[in-house]
Write a structure and sequence with these properties.
Strand content: 15-25%
Order of helices and strands: EEEHEEHEEEHEHEEEHHEEEEE
Largest sheet: 8 strands, mixed
Helix content: 10-25%
Length: 318
């Protein structure tokens, strides 16, 4: 969340229980059944809720992520341990089941390491507790119960089936096995389903580069007093595209930004001369010595013409 985005603490006084990460079901003291869940989704949800004022209990499977600030953490290993921790954390205002709980566990855990003897090994498995379904019908059911679904195909079909079968309020589903979505991804994408609707979220734009001050291109064309009076509140931002959307760094570098030197303002646009001599940033004494050429072009946002300085780097400066 950005600085001004969530200074409000709109979840103050609320209590959330969040489960995150995988569960490991032991086969013997060496081996276990697990999955690829990293816990990043659940930990991010817990952190965001805590920053918005909620009291958060995070029940984490075996992951190595740091505990978010102001979050109570309970570490577990197996599905049965996670079920006990979740039920023990009720009542709550919301339960968000972001953990990837194993569906099956070995019927028996071998006391010692199983040695290689035969070409094949048969392992008897039993169902693990269905934590999400149990919370949804519990006597202390939270007002909001959210489940997660990771699918390799037919995402909506399986997500809506889980929504109805588990009797939850929301299912957040995503497709695993594709780039930018699923397990171990920092910038994820998913679709949230409810009884009569859905909403796609992501991918998250957290990896945008920060621009150095020298690359923000803050210079803008001088505006006549009459024009400034008509538009006193408008200031064109170089980091915005023609449709008002934010540009990535590489797009910003390729965008031509207007600069109109003072010696060109007195001439009509059709015969306005190319700036001569060293280029100085408007309002400063800084001289740009890497200018190699000039081009006349309109600007997309206000359609007013201006000179574009093309530097040796191939970027337009203004």
């Amino acid at each position: 969340m950005s600085g001004g985005e969530r200074d409000l603490r709109d979840l103050a006084g609320r209590r959330l229980v969040v489960s995150a990460g995988p569960t490991f079901e032991d086969i013997d003291p060496v081996r276990f059944i697990g999955n690829r869940s990293s816990g990043k989704m659940g930990f991010a949800i817990a952190e965001a809720a805590a920053r918005r004022g909620a009291r958060v209990t995070l029940i984490a499977g075996p992951v190595s992520l740091p505990t978010p600030a102001a979050v109570e953490r309970i570490d577990v290993r197996s599905a049965r341990q996670m079920r006990e921790a979740v039920i023990g954390a009720l009542p709550a205002d919301a339960y968000i089941g972001a953990a990837a709980v194993a569906d099956y566990a070995p019927a028996e855990v071998a006391p010692g390491k199983i040695k290689k003897k035969e070409e094949q090994l048969t392992l008897a498995l039993v169902r693990t507790p269905d934590i999400l379904a149990e919370v949804a019908v519990h006597a202390q059911r939270p007002t909001l119960v959210v489940g997660f679904a990771a699918e390799t195909h037919d995402v909506e079909f399986y997500a809506r089936g889980k929504l109805e079968k588990k009797r939850v309020d929301l299912i957040a589903a995503n497709r695993v096995g594709v780039a930018g979505s699923g397990f171990e991804s920092d910038d994820n994408a998913l679709t949230v389903y409810w009884i009569d609707g859905e909403r796609a979220l992501g991918p998250a734009r957290t990896g945008w580069p920060r621009l150095h001050r020298s690359e923000r291109c803050r210079a803008r064309a001088p505006v006549s007093p009459s024009r400034a009076a008509r538009r006193p509140h408008r200031r064109r931002r170089a980091s915005l595209g023609s449709d008002g959307t934010r540009l990535r760094l590489e797009e910003l570098r390729a965008t031509r930004i207007k600069t109109t030197p003072s010696n060109a303002r007195a001439h009509p646009a059709s015969r306005r001369p190319r700036p001569a001599g060293p280029m100085r940033w408007p309002g400063t004494s800084a001289v740009r010595r890497d200018i190699t050429s000039w081009a006349w072009t309109p600007i997309a946002r206000d359609r007013s013409p201006g000179w574009v300085a093309i530097a040796r780097t191939g970027r337009a400066h203004g």
